[in-house]
Amino acid sequence: MASPHTELLTLRDLLRWAISRFQAAGLVFGHGSDNAWDEAAYLLLHSLHLPLDTLDPFLDARLLERERQRCVDLIHERVNSRKPAAYLTGEAWLQGVRFLVDERVIVPRSPIAELLSENLAPWLPDPQAVHEVLDLCTGSGCLAILAAKAFGEAQVDATDVSADALAVAQSNIELHALQGRVTALRSDLFSRLPEDRRYDLIVCNPPYVNTHSMAELPAEYRHEPSLALAGGVDGMDLVRKILAQAPRFMAAKGLLVLEVGHEQEHFEQAFPELEPIWLSTDTASDQIVLLRRAQLSE
Length: 298
Fold this sequence. Notes:
With about 300 residues, this protein is α/β, with parallel strands linked by helices. The chain folds into 2 domains: about 5-90, Helicase, Ruva Protein, domain 3, CATH 1.10.8; about 100-295, 3-Layer(aba) Sandwich (Rossmann fold), CATH 3.40.50.150. The chain is built from 12 helices and 9 strands. A hairpin with an 8-residue loop joins β8 (about 275-280) and β9 (about 290). α2 (about 35-45) crosses α3 (about 65-80). The radius of gyration is 21 Å and the shape is elongated.
């Protein structure tokens, strides 16, 4: 008996079928795409080794049997495993930059990336004057690498408590040939950093998901390391430590750019005396705080 998938002759056929499968299965998106269409298109184009930004010219192309089977297998795996697409393809894209990923790190998606692509203007008026950058809780190293690309004169330290995460970060540092400018360091927050280090900029996407939200995470997010997500009862466990320790490692006019996701209320309850600047991006508002060293020192 012939496989029902033999009726899927073109990429357009496969795309329609994949979207239907995703919708019927109730998949959750948010690891690079936020809807079934974009995720299906990405997985199919990746499977066919086609440019990820060029769908239309290929929609009515007929597929070889082995190509069709490869696509079908990948779509089935996404549905059955509930793994984020990035774990199935081994890569993730952030601000048009490719990163290697696997289940040792969370999937790169921080909105801080958009701010880095704009050189953190207007908060850092002279990108060439940024000489020392720290990416705290670096995970895959994506923000450290984007910071190195944004600030051409900067040396960037990328730290994480997880040796597994740092192995992934190192692979990305090598992928982008930044071994001379980005250094992966194993450290529990600031604990193993040189005491004389003074950073012009610290960026951080720490674990900040509160305990209640952790218990309700969809299956896709449960494939990510909980160490990189769980932030305690109110999500602020590590944030408290970061804000207490950061001033000692910041330059006089240093900035801290910190992601807190959907925990704005908990952040404001935990730090009522602070008056941070809340930064907005195209994809996020009230999720990123900017703090100056002077504020934290007080």
